[in-house]
Amino acid sequence: MTDLPSYTPHHQHTFFFSFIASNDGKLVSFHDSTYSWTLSLQRSALFLKGQGKERPIELFIEDTTPLCDGSTHHCAITTQEIGSQIFLDGYQCFSSTAHLMNDAKNGLQCFFLSNNTGIHTFNNQYSKKTLSPDEILALTPLPNPLIEFAAHTLSTADTSEVASLDTGSISLRYRVRGPGQCGTLLATSDGTQELMRIDIDSTGITYLATTSTLSSAQRKTDKKDNTQTFHAAGTWDDGNWHDIVLTVGHGAVRIYVNGYLESHLPGRPFFHTDTTSIVLGQDTYGKRLFGEVASAAIYSTTLNDAQIKHLSRIKPIRTVCLFDKGYNHSASYRIPALLTTTNGTLIAAADQRVTIPNDAPNGINLVMRRSSDNGVTWSDMATIVEYPGRDHQGAAATDISLINCADTGRIIALFDLFPGTIGQPQSTPGRGVTKEGLFELYDNDGNTFVWCKDGYARPTRHAQREDPRPHHREPRYLIAENGDVTSTDDDSGAIEGNVFLADSAPFHIASTSFLQMIYSDDDGHTWSQPRNLNHQVKDDWMDFLGTGPGRGIQIRHGKYAGRIVAPVYYSGKAPMEFICAVVYSDDNGETWHRGGGTDPMVATYEATVIERSDASLLMLMRNQHSLGKVATACSYNGGLTWSDIEFDPALPEIFSQPNAINVPCKTYPDRVIFANASQLMPYRGHGKLRLSHDGGKTWAASRTFNPAHYVYQCMTVLPDGTLGLLWERETQGLYFSVLPLSWFGISTEV
Predict the structure, then answer these.
(1) I want to staple 88 with a disulfide (CB 3.0 to 4.6 A). Which of 60, 93, 141, 737 is the partner?
(2) C-alpha neighbours within 13 Å on the C-beta side of residue 95
(3) Phi, psi (degrees; rounded to nearest 5) at 569
(4) Would the pLDDT of 596 be above 60?
(5) What is the mean pLDDT of the chain?
(6) b/e per residue, 510-548, with b = 16+ CB within 10 A?
(7) Mean pLDDT of the region 341-351
(8) Please, is 412 exposed, middle or buried when counting C-beta atoms within 10 Å of its C-beta (0-12, 13-18, 19+)?
(9) What is the DSSP letter of 439?
(10) In this structure, are residues 334 and 728 in contact, taking their beta carbons and an 8 Å threshold?
């Protein structure tokens, strides 16, 4: 991975310190003539609050919990032109668009370390440059174990000390001699029976432990099987060296392999107080591993994700924040869309939720930033679609889906429009537009009008008369592009209302959802005015039709090559009968059609589409099925019809938007990467990326990208062949990360 970029126009800063905490409180504060902020512990996680140059800052860095554990942690804060990054225990844990330190050449800089009771800060270092992630990792010590193994068994004194632990971590480095060879990596006993065991076999890593609350005597007399089993599925019997870290604490057993989380399972069995022996490379009955354990250690604390990555020498990932809470004075940003244009420019788009972070009904704008250097630097934010209103009264432009037309270079964006007070649950049936795509308008007396191309509102029966005959009365109302209504009877030009606001006089658009489109022919610098697509793709019975946000595709192979395809989903009166389909265009977005839908009884929602080399399409869908797996369907006619829905047993589904992307190469023309939030923890999280070499039929490798908060995402292949990922932590912000394909841990051809 390349380091975070250096910038010369502004001063750069890095502040590094260590701390030990047993309770919440202030860690460090900073102030000068422009900035002031405090980094503290709140609910055992990092919390940053203060005043930056551009705006107030209040960021709850929730993924860092728990830090009030009495062990040593290390923190670094860097700032540069693109924003600020926060590192915990050697790895970046958060980033923000906010600038946290003065960029003036002679600005006063004052740091204050905490002296709160229960918090000890020390080892502070300051640099007037932005240290790279690798440099910060080099400053960070490895976590200290309670016990290290020097032989295949622990001494009696060490065993007694370890036996008292009811939470903690175990690390092991091992290899077996080849596929199918297996055995026990670590085991414990009370002298009469086995209490705990960590095994490796062809199916993965298995942790077995008896209930720790039972005494030795109770286990002998209790006829029930009190063994709990925890499993991480995978192939780690390949003869290579692998690192395993098992943590127990905070209600869960976590199994990491080679620095990445593989299983997060509820439970808490660990060591027993009556443990008398702990052995490596065999079970307690003497049956030895078909391989070797090179090293092992036991920790008295539950190691966090960064500490475990450090143990496995994982190279840091470059991440920058593009949109976050407070940026451009907005409450929230959500729904990432990411695209590489024909010219190699990156476009990152999102919902800007200005006053409240909710879905529609809410005043929501569509915004974007551009990068021409593989995501190293980014333009300022630009608003590309904005409708009037605030809070739940405001109209919403939301859920953008980006598509690149390879032959023309045109960038197409599809999105949903909702008028004020209307969201998907409140939408009523109908298209809301004429057969030409003009907005229908309604007044409070039930009369209907049409917003004509010349800007006038005409009664429906007169809407075709753009130039009324002399004996016809001129239209009374003129509507501006933003929906503002003025009366032709009033020379003052006073605005009487706005058609996009439901309670606005004298009339408003239909209380339903609208699929709209904009496009750019200059690499995203400027965008067209929105135009309606409902008359082409929505039926009168539909309450709702909207995008599967993120990105669409242009078909590359076969009969339908050149067709633009974008996933949508829709519903009618039945509240749970949601249906997935695609809308498509064969003329670069001039006209659109809707293909056939999936089974309505499965209730499929947001979806993502990829193309296989045989020109078939695979759609992967969010759904409500009790199996809890991603729904899939195939189309062999460019999206016109879809096969019966199946559920991929390898892809967990927790009711969150998925994303997939083609990453073809000569060796693997059907290589695909799939990403989603894969586990309720109980929040939506455990963001995982999976690699397929056969178009999503099987999955060859997977990696946990963020084991905590993670919701929506969108991917693109960068001009240099690496993978760009724009992802979100719900209401906290949207972040851009760069991943080489080698990140998946296998040899890949780019």
Answers:
(1) 93
(2) 24
(3) -145, 155
(4) yes
(5) 92
(6) bbbbbbbbbbbeebbeebeebebbbbbbbeeebbbbbbb
(7) 97
(8) buried
(9) B
(10) yes
